[in-house]
Amino acid sequence: MLEIPWTDTRDAEAVQHALREATQMLHQRSCRQGSIDVLSGHGTLLVSGDLHDNPFHFEALLRMARLDEGEDRHLILHELIHGEHLMNGMDFSYRMLLKTADLVRVHPGVHPMLANHEIAQLMKTRVTKGHGECVTLFRDALEFTFGEHCEAVELALDEFIAAMALGVRAENGVWCSHSLPGRAVMPSFDPEIVRRPLVASDFEKPKGGAYLMTWGRVFEDADIDLLAQAWKVQLFCLGHRKVPTGVESEGDRLVLVNSDHEGARAFTLELDQPPPSAEECVLRSRPLNSV
Predict the structure, then answer these.
(1) What is the pTM of this model?
(2) Fewest CB atoms within 10 A around its CB: which of 16, 52, 109, 113?
(3) Considering the domain boundaries, does residue 6 fall inside one?
(4) DSSP code, position 109
């Protein structure tokens, strides 16, 4: 497996350095076009779903991705923060963002994508997940760990989040993003957002383009058709929705993935081959607890 020099999660200076270096690399990577990463027609892509600070499944994804075999091996990561397990009533999932930054620093095929929880943390807007208000619990952990350096570390984390890709598109027509705009907001969504860098207003609730892209749960066939044509997509790979079985298909070209719970799964796609159907993705997926 790829050897990674993990950053000390309690060293404020080292944490800021790692995050800022990864942020710069995301902005400057050769595959970044507009607000998305665009992959060439060779290599493999490991598609994962919401992770929510699950360290065991994070390690399983690294084993599945086999990043040490070359730079044409790609790994999708998203919804990294705000897990279910607190420590002394605090959410330490900043450490998952830091691990992802460390991966970005050593391998160009690691693709962190924007998700609704990351955007909520960036914008300091309220979001809950069973155990309380996630943004506050996250910041409590930063204050506990970094003390007077908390605000500086938080700024570096925010910059790293803002540098993430809104989505990933491969030349063979595969698309990955945390979600898509839901039916109710499609009339106000501009698909051209993927062709330009994001600006601050894109993250704002309720009409920012990045915000809309990460909250949809109900999709109409007509909207999928519109986005498929606009972005030249044959297969959409999304997260965000609860999928007890880990992976499920919805129609011929939409597959939903979860990688955070006991039934978590992920699947690999060959980028030099036409994309499989959504149902074929389900059949080729692997449970992360078996990796």
Answers:
(1) 0.98
(2) 16
(3) no
(4) T
